Amino acid sequence: MSLKEKFEQYKSILENALNALKNRYFFAQYPEMPSPAVYGEDAQQKGLQAFENQLNKPFDRLLQSGEWVASAEKSPFRNENIGIQYPVHKDVQTYIDLSKKAFQTWKKLTVEERAGVLIECLENIKKHFFEIAYATMHTTGQAFMMSFQASGPHANDRALEAIAMGYQELTYFVHNTSWIKPMGKVNVHLEKEFIPVPKGISLAIGCSTFPIWNTVPGMFASLITGNTVIVKPHPLAIYPIAIVVAEMQRTFQANGLDPHIVQIAIDHPNNLITKTLAEHPDIKIIDFTGSSEFGHYIESLPGKITFTEKAGVNSAIIDSTNNYKEMLNNLAFSVSLYSGQMCTAPQNILVSEKGIETENGIKSFEEFAQDFKAAVEGLCQNPKAGPAICGAIQNENTLKRIEEAKKLGKIILEPRKIQNTEFPNAVTSSPLILAINEKDKSVYEKELFGPIVLLIQTSSTDSSIAIAKEMAQKHGAISCLVYSKHSHVIEKVKEDMMEAATSVSFNLYGPIYVNQNAAFSDFHVTGGNPAGNASFTDASFVTKRFHYVGFRQPKS
Amino acid sequence: MSLKEKFEQYKSILENALNALKNRYFFAQYPEMPSPAVYGEDAQQKGLQAFENQLNKPFDRLLQSGEWVASAEKSPFRNENIGIQYPVHKDVQTYIDLSKKAFQTWKKLTVEERAGVLIECLENIKKHFFEIAYATMHTTGQAFMMSFQASGPHANDRALEAIAMGYQELTYFVHNTSWIKPMGKVNVHLEKEFIPVPKGISLAIGCSTFPIWNTVPGMFASLITGNTVIVKPHPLAIYPIAIVVAEMQRTFQANGLDPHIVQIAIDHPNNLITKTLAEHPDIKIIDFTGSSEFGHYIESLPGKITFTEKAGVNSAIIDSTNNYKEMLNNLAFSVSLYSGQMCTAPQNILVSEKGIETENGIKSFEEFAQDFKAAVEGLCQNPKAGPAICGAIQNENTLKRIEEAKKLGKIILEPRKIQNTEFPNAVTSSPLILAINEKDKSVYEKELFGPIVLLIQTSSTDSSIAIAKEMAQKHGAISCLVYSKHSHVIEKVKEDMMEAATSVSFNLYGPIYVNQNAAFSDFHVTGGNPAGNASFTDASFVTKRFHYVGFRQPKS
What we know:
2 copies of one chain form a homodimer. The first copy, chain A, is of the alpha/beta class. Helices cover 41% and strands 19% of the residues of chain A. Chain A is built from 20 helices and 21 strands. In chain A, strands 16-17-18-13-12-19-20 form a 7-stranded mixed beta sheet, with helices on both faces. In chain A, helix 18 runs parallel beside helix 19 (487-499).
């Protein structure tokens, strides 16, 4: 099948995606529930088997060569190394050379041809959703359901969104035109071509907690616009994205294309290559998810086009509610989900010293603290819900951070181990909840990554809003959650958080959480505060990856 | 009339512009010929009078206050200071404070409301095209026709293009949606808002040669996306853009808006303010046209969104032609137009030592040099065409540069004064033409701004192409002109110059020149080589000026 025919095959997927993107309504090409009816009766069992078979063996599915090097990846659930070896080139120049070669053919395809084969990549990745889920679990510590959703269907939807956005922008202007300028007695007639030219090689630097979800948007945005991609995963979360890359390479090969259009470049334990790659003159585009410090370094590299997601300090503002109990449950879920290791998890919960208006009268700051503690405890210590929601702790530094944080305020809830009968060795921690005052700025103006929640007593809801705004402007924020039944509060929050370039969820109850950002509808990160300079997936996320070159000549 | 009604009034202009932009065909909202039939019988006379009346007086049309300061603007035609005083604030913070205040209302308008009033600004600027033309002549040294076209209709068209591009991008996504996610037995229903939020205050730094054409695209792109603008003109070319700013301020005021939505900030002779403004934390966006050195400084400022046009080394590759004489004429015009002071003027003319295939056999490098010399001399020394095409020299440093350049190669044509009967004191120079060899890289790899043309003898057309590509990749290029009747040469140029991110004009004869870039059709600067990081007007030129903030709450 030609690439043109391939495009026709997948065109309806693209059209649905484009329609959803433009109208921002609910759309999911890849169903989020790991249901046997959708994904096949034995899909989960087969995925688990593929995962178990891969452990302690070479990952030999990539169409890349190199020296076999064992990674340091460790399962937070089993608390043991997963022992996989990956092929590693001794010299990063090898990745660059292979990428440059692949670029020569990839850049010449039409956007339709690229869109077709990239959607086929997603369709092929879909066949591995369950192995990807287990690979994600046992590198990130996400519980199974989140691992499946975030690394599987949600990531694929985000990738499809990037393809659709790229397709839209690459086809907006005509690529050929007859330009006829009347000049009195004569016309000047030029035939013009407008070629969208990709920038070159793109580097996608992954993070340890969402190794696929945060990496594929940049990858697919670069690919649809004609750039080739080198993926540099976090050294502790290689396996999930390696499955994705291998599947893509095989899809390219099956379509007669160079598999090195996308490559994975893994650190040698004695040779960390991220900076070498990032500073390489042939790397033109860098997508990055990770720490603010490294993100600033990436943004400051001269001559690079960068897309960053860094740390932030997210706030929840509790003013008033008509459903106190459901609010507590929603909030408890949001801070517990993946043990607070999400970039969208609330950290600073701001409550006025005047208390919270509820359907049962005013709840004081102290009452709220105790009620919230009970809600979090109830969730995390529930033998079924606890491990399923909290998952495990990805990095041991997070455990140290929890210990150190204990002295930062009045302890409302001591962190405890979460019992996990399936994985008795799992590295876990329920949230540490501290109470502090709005004067303790030095405490709450830092990102305390992991299950650490600060209840901050403020002088008023206005002061809560001011703090949320200031934190977002100074330190970045990716989410904001507000409970209020007063329209003047809602309007004030909108006005202030707009200035802080932070999206806000209001009055969430039931099975929808501030942590969640839906592809085709919610923009993830605004790009307007220090938490990052880019957004999944607005027009800039693709238009910065190419430029137009024009050719014109007289009509012959 | 409400702003909404204003939008309806101008909607058809916007729709025509959008249609042209998308389809890249010929479109001009503002006719380029200064014809009395179009612009009014006495428009030119009135414009000249307005100009003469303004000389040596305070420019009192701005809706800005400040200390009156005389500028150093000097007419290259009269060789004397034009003696205009402008209002200057002692402290740049005053401009920032006024801009911040204006931003509070401007950002809240809808894109339709902003589009309406901005198009009205253009319609009002149009009434001053002739005064603008004389102001441009007597600051830049452009001859009348170019002054009229570049600063009048062509600039207005470029501004309209930016409005249209902004309108397109700001309305692409819906701003409100009902998001209904089916979750088995229940639906989650959120009402979502997506607000395009402007970045803040935008700084537009102008250049001395095209004080309006190069400045208005960034201004209008920032304004349509909701940012306020401070224009910092070049100290030697204030008057033309001051007319534009004054007219805009009056249009804003007439529509009940804050005139400080756009301001002009002029250097005090003892206090150059460009860097102070550029580094100010409240300046979020910077548009810049000027030297490469200053452009690099602008691009390196942390946390700023920058759009730059810097210097470049433009090439013409002469391989073969079917119309040798017309080629010479076209090329002679392009190097003479505004005495080579255009960013699109060819500097390096590359000819193989094997000569040029023509309809009358091979012309050797030496023959071409002599024939080209004759064509340039014929044009420049023609008493009518010479002054009308070459204009005058804007900056005395350019005269020094011509003198110094004489020792760089074999002189083919000595620069001469161009006789100008209307302005006998005009500072003029016909082009200096030098012959050098491809080995003299140190000579031709620098931008020699002004009427300095290098004829470079190369070993082959392939070598000519390689040099054009290398210059563009290393030093930037904004144009490239190629004469060839061989499709393999044309294909090779396309492939190589695409890699160098440089647009190419092929085989131009008659009244169309490589120097010209038409609004709504030709992208000006690609943004892909060192000549600049932005393009008039692609999607990135507007999308980088705002970001989306989302609000969501359950359907009540």
